[in-house]
Amino acid sequence: MATEDVFGTIIEKCQRALATEDPQASVEAILLEAAEDPALAEAVSRRTRFANLADLAIHRDENLTLLAGTLPPGFSAAPHNHNLWSVVSVCSGQEDNQFYERDGDGLKRTGEASVVAPGVLANTADVIHSICNPLDEPLLVLHAYGGDLFAVERSNWDPVTLKEKPFDWQQVRSRK
What we know:
Layout: H1 3-17, H2 23-35, H3 38-45, E1 57-60, E2 65-71, E3 76-81, E4 86-92, E5 94-103, E6 106-116, E7 119-123, E8 128-132, E9 139-145, E10 155-157, E11 164-166, H4 169-172
Antiparallel strand pairs: 1-2, 2-9, 3-8, 4-7, 4-9, 5-6, 5-8, 10-11
Helix pairs in contact: 1-2, 1-3
């Protein structure tokens, strides 16, 4: 199946899911099924450019954003928020998440979760997390957000001081 067809089918299903009683749970089920499909892994594996976060977008409107990409071994993203519910889908590899909550002027770590392919993780709109690819192989991901990720005000936190700043992709992503 062509890349456009694979992504197009997922986009259509996710758009329909937004009209359900629990859109996030519906999208989570769709992305879990998709993560098990080798055609999705193949399509995502072709998406290796992500100088800007928008490079990962396969769909964006006011109700839904989908990002798909191949993250190299050692890739990490500093603590950040989305201010939208999200679903992380891993097609190949492993995404490690560290969770935080606000603590005065900074953050304190509250937990962690690993998403191993094929797998998904649903996050609430108020989650603050960092991610990394701990493996020596590419991480193939498809992430869904319950709104326009590029239009919502977001923050990231300095990975050393844990001080909050306005969101800046260049500060969030690792340089590996």
